[in-house]
Each structure stands twice: as C-alpha cells, then as structure tokens.
Amino acid sequence: MSQVATDFESKNPSAGMRWGKYLWDQYSVIFAFLVLVALAAILNEHFLDIGNITNVLRQVSIVGILSLGMTFVIILGGIDLSVGSVLAFSGTVIMAAQVTYELPIWISIVLGLVAGALLGVINGLVITYGKITAFIATLAMMTIARSLALYYADAGAISGFDSSYSKIGNEYLAGVPIPVIIFGLIFLLSYIVLEKTVFGRHIYAVGGNTQAARLSAISVFRVTIISYLICGLTAAIGAVIETSRLNSISTSSSGHMYELDAIAAVIIGGTSLSGGRGRIVGTLFGVLILGVLSNIMNLLNISPYLQGVVKGLIIIAAVLLQKRD
Amino acid sequence: MILEMKGITKTFYGVKALQDVSFELRKGEVHALVGENGAGKSTLMKVLAGIHVPDKGAIELKGKAVHIGSPHLSQKLGISIIHQELNLVPHMSVAENIFLGREQKVAGLFSNFKGMIGQTKQLLDQFGLKLNPSEPIYNLSIGERQIVEIAKALSMKSEIMIMDEPTAVLEESEANQLFTLIRRFKEQGVSIIYISHRLHELKGICDRITVLRDGQNVTTRSLEGLAERDIANLMVGRELKEMYPARPERFGDELLKVEGLTLAPHFEDIHFHVKRGEIIGFAGLIGAGRTELMRTLFGDWKAQSGTVVWKGEPIRIRNPLDAVKLGFGFATEDRKGSGLLMEMNVAQNMTLSNPAKVSRWNLIRRKSEIKVVRDKIQELNIKAKALNGPVKNLSGGNQQKVVIAKWLVSDSELFIMDEPTRGIDVGARSEIYNLIVRFATEGKAVIVISSELPELLGLCNRIYVMHRGRLKGEIHESDANEQNIMAMATGL
C-alpha cells in the first residue's frame, strides 16, 4: 500500500509532505528505533562494532521469526499464546527423530515443521469450529504442547550427536549468521504475503470486521486456519534454529515465555491487538528495538533482573505513542 | 429564547466545518436542523454538546453566556443528545441504563435497585412510555432502545434535547410513536433540535427550520408554506429534478425463484421471484424477517427448508462465497457493521469480493487494480480524494457507492439492497435511485428492502409485503399505495 501512485493527485507538490505524514503514521517505530540506536551508540562506543551488531541480530532472530507469525494472527484479530510451547514441541520432535529414531537431519527438520504447522492448524480449528476465543484456545495449546514435550523427555533435555546439525544455528554465510539470514528471508516472505497478496488482504479484512469480510465473499474459515498454520510454522522454524544452536532441546526451558516477547514486539511495532491494523515492517523494528534495548543494557552492566522493567515501560510508551484517533 | 449560538466558527486541520453559523432555539420549540452530509449539522451539535470547542463565537443559555468545555458540562447545563448510534449497555436493565453513572446507593455502597426501578417507572409513566424498567436492553427493539435513551435524557432534567436522525432506524409505526412523544415533550416545555434527512417528517412536528450548507447558514424560518421540494433545493442549492427515474418496463427471463424458504422463527414458507430487468421491493415492519430472508438467501444463514432456483437451475448456497460466485451482490443495511471495511481504503474495499480481477497467482497487481477502481469511481461519480484513504472518511452516500462498486466489480447480476439510502443525503439519494434503475435496464435484477414506503413506491415494479416472518401479499406497481402496503405490513 505504500505506493503513493494510487493517489489521484500524485502529481501535486504536497505529495512529499503526505509521504512524510504517512511514514510517521505507519512507521513511527522506525523513528523510535533510530533514536534508540543513536542513544546506544553514544552510551557505549562498542555498540556499533560489527561483532556486536551481528550478535544482536542473531539473538533476536528466533523471537523475531515467532513475531512475524504472531503478526499474522494479531492482524487477524486473534493471538497465539502457544508459540513458545509449540517451539519446544517441534524441537522435541526434531531431536527425537534424530536421536531416538536416527532419521536423517533433513527428515527431522521436515517432521518438526509439520508438527508446528499441525499444532497451528489445530489452534485454528478449535477457534473456528469450536467458536472458542483465540486467547483461550491457544492458552490450552500452550499447556498441552509443553506438557507433551515434558512427558516425552521426562522434563529433561534431548541432545543430538550429529555435529553437522549445529551448522544451521552457528555458522555464517557471507559473514552473516545463518539464523539472521533465515529471519530475513521469512520477513521478506511475510511482507509479500501480507502486503502484496489477496490472502494478506483477506487477513486484514477478517481482522477488521469478520462479518463484513464474510459478506464480501471471503472464507473466514480458510483465512483463519492458514493464519494459525503460518504462526505454528514460524514457531517450528524457531525450533530448528534453537535446537541447532546447542544441538539439544530442553523441554522445560526452550521457548519459555517466547510468546510474550513475540507479542511485545508486534505491539511495539504498532499492530493493533483489536485486529485489522498493523504492518509487518513495524514488527521487524519492534523486534530490533527489543534486541538493541537488551544489548545496550547488558553493555552498560544493568542487572538482567531490572531489564524487565525497562521492557515493560517501552511497551506502554510504544502504545501511548501510537494511539491514534 | 432558551438558546442562542452566534457566529460559531470551527476549523479542522484548515477545513472550515462551520463558518459564522448562528442558531437559536425557543422554549418548547421543535427546531429542524437540515443540510446535506458534511453541511455542518453534526459539528454544530457537537459544539453544543461540549465535544468540540469552537474557534470563535458565543453561546447563550437563557440569556447567560456559557462556555461548554466538556460533554459533562453540557449535560449539567440541561443539554442532552440522542445519538444515532445508541449508547446503552445491552446486559443491563432499562433502569440501570437510565441511571448509569448516577446510580443511587444504599449506605453509600450498594445500588438501590428498588429505588431506581420506582423512579424509572414514574418517569416512564409521566410521558406515557410503555416499558418495563427491569427489562434487559438486549430484549428491546431498536425503537424501544431509543425510548430508553430519551428517558435517560428526561431523567437528567434536560431542557434541550438534540435528536440526531432519530427515525433513521425506526419503522413507520415506531416513528409515529416518537412523534407523539415529541409533541408531548413540547407541551411540557422541552425544546428539541431535530436533525433528519427525511424531509417529509418535519412538517408534522417541527415549528421552525434552519438549513445549513457547506458550513454556513442558508436560512432560518418557519416551516409554514415550505414544501419538501423547497427544503431539498435549499439544502442542495440548486433545483433538484424528479427524485425517482422512470422505472424499467422490459423484463427478461426469470433470474431467481425462491420456493418455500423457511428459517423459523425468522421467516417461513417464502415464495417469490424476480426477472431480469425488474426491481422488486420488500416492505414490512422491523422484525418482519426481510433482512433475515436476504441474509439466508445470500448464504450467511442456513435455511431449514425451501428451494432456490437461479437461471432455471435449482442451486445450493452454502455461504456468501457461493452466492457471490453465482452473481449475487448484497448491500447490507449497516455499512459500518457489515458492509464495508472502514479501516481499509476505497480500492481495497471495491476489489475485496472479486480479487481475481486484479490479481494473478494471488499477487495483487496494482496497475490493474487502480484501473478497475478508477473506472468505477468515474462511473458512479464517487467523490473520494484518494484511492488509498480509508472509506470511513467518506460521506454516507459515497460509502454506499463504494459498496455498489464492489458488487459491480464482482459482476453481480442480482443486487440485493437493504435500506439503500439509509443515512444518505438528498443529492446522493437520487443518484442511488438512478443506479438501481440503470442496473435493471441493463438486464440485471434488483431487490430493494426499505422502511421508507415512498422509496418502494417510487422504484419497484412489484412489492412483496411481509408480516412476522410470513409473506402477506404481492402488489404490482399500478395497484400499490401506502395504505394497502401498511395494511398488509401490520397484519390487517
């Protein structure tokens, strides 16, 4: 939608000004991000080191990927509290496939992705067929998926033996960590789906007004199921990176509270929890803001126990700043 | 003179919404305030209600200058506004809603339900309102809910009542009840500012009229000797031609036939048909089941029994998607609630139901979308500054045209129009009528549901009348008049 060419008076001189106002309306979060980066660079001379920047990007990539999927369901007017647990479940599937069943790595990855997508579809089915609100449906999935993972591994960890698997999480491609590349690719894909496709527009429509969307010949059922599938799939992609980094999954702590970080990033990015409004670009910068914030606090030696306060305040500030009409 | 507003000017982001507007109200007067959408009626009333503070101008209440800085202050000064969209809490009772925010307490803690119910009853009786104070709001019809709003205003001892299109959501009989009430309030010294697009109502209840156009006063005068047509001309500032175009005369094959369609308790055993080139109407009171019938036909609700024949073939419609694919288009009565996606822009709304026209492999092609949308904007004379502005910023008439454009883009052959001119000003209204007739002459078919009988009488070739979920009869244009339709609609 960003192409101003759609404007009737695209030739008129105030187009630049409108473009500016549009940018601020849609992406004030980018501005906030730049301010934060400038601040971080002033506060600590090492912040802008390539090594540090790379580090920040790698640290945010898993929650970042989850946030992208979360953006789909929040624009749809829903939410997915289960992504952290789905990550643990998919991770368990991957490691179990490699360790217990000694399957090839690529098959274990496919199984993990299928597992995540499947749980997402189940979320969608419970919400549509069961007419249960997304909050409750995914809350239930959160405890179920976690519980299954815990049961399988007796609340312990499953560690792999094939070191080639850890390449995904730890190696670089052209100087960029592979997790960051995956994050970037999924961001691009998400951007195209949400902004450029009919399906993306239907997500906005269902989130904006389900009844009007239905009466406009949109299959609300299909849109909902696919959105939750995407969200579950991103959790599973997160699981691939998470398990590969340590070549292990901890069924009790992997993915723990990731759902809240993902939701926070989406909200900081300006997407409305009531649905129908929001931008995936906003989510990208919401993720980066959270990453830079925790990085600079670490560089400044602020107690990790205190960092939650700052994060909480940032969430409130972001919502206050973006409050429009 | 109970109220005088002088030289009110209000600017929004450089656009003058009101320019040196004056308005006065006498005690016990019903004063009509009319103008096209965007003329400044609402802004002026919002100034009075304390929602907007004017840039310039003075307000005097009973001869004393006042500054109305907040809605709360406006209420305290005895001004209340009955909004078009009613602000009631559905799960609370009539009495609780009336005293909402001003609950009476026992021992400063517990709500005094008994006391509130007693007082509500007294208040309702005083004005001859027939409502049960302990009835929950969700059980009430829209007309009854409006009465609760009015009672709420009365309970606050309002001396000035602003009614913003009160009859827009009412059936003829409910509207008549409201008029009786208004006359009674008048006798008791309440002054009323009455905003309406239905000019024919004004004659019976209003004393004087103020016309606004483009944020400026046109005139304030007695309604006496002023014909409906004159008012319309004053509003538009030009001569309006005949409201209804000549209706279509040449019909083609039968497009749709409905037999025995039933969804109890909403409607039962409905039979009707429509040919290409024909405009048919559905008359009836609220709750007669007309909207429910159309929603079912459109696949939004599931019928219990009955058959639908489309172009001679029996068909099954499971959801709106099926209906649209076949060639149905449905302009709902509630544009905000179910017709448009208010946050989305004009282009997105227009292509929503038929994205195939502007996409390939699910990817939207901007160029073809812009072309399709521009064509429709021109064809329907839609006044939208930009394709990428949200439709919520358009006037009611232009929003309705966007809805119509959506179904044109979907290549609809049957247009179901539920209250097609609700909340739409005079100028845009006749454009909508022209479009309806144009579609019919192009070989499409149109079904119109309307609570305004003149609209049905002026447009339709045949009118079906429903009463409590049943079809009471079918009247041809040559036999139709308000009397025989009303008789059927009320079940006589």
Q: Strand fraction band of chain A?
A: under 5%
Q: Count of DSSP helices of chain A?
A: 13
- Which spans of chain B have pLDDT < 50 for at least 5 consecutive residues? none
Q: Can you list the strand order of the major beta sheet of chain A? A: 1-4
Distance between the termini of chain A: 20 Å
How would a textbook summarize the main sheet of chain A? 2 strands, antiparallel
Share in helix of chain B: 25-40%
Integer-rounded radius of gyration of chain A: 20 Å
Secondary-structure-based class of chain B equals alpha/beta
Distance between the termini of chain B: 46 Å
What is the overall pLDDT average of chain B?
86
Number of strands of chain A: 4
Specify the number of helices of chain B. 17
Report strand order across the widest sheet of chain B.
6-9-10-3-11-12
Write up this protein.
The complex is a heterodimer of chains A (325) and B (492). With 325 residues, chain A is mostly helical. Chain A has a domain at 62-258. Helices cover 71% and strands 3% of the residues of chain A. Chain A has a two-stranded antiparallel sheet. In chain A, a hairpin with a 2-residue loop joins β2 and β3 (176-177). Chain B has 492 residues and is an alpha/beta fold. In chain B, the strands form six sheets. In chain B, strands 6-9-10-3-11-12 form a six-stranded mixed sheet, sandwiched between helices. Chain B is globular. Chain B starts with a strand and ends with a helix. Chains A and B meet through α8 and α9 of A and α10, α11 and β20 of B.
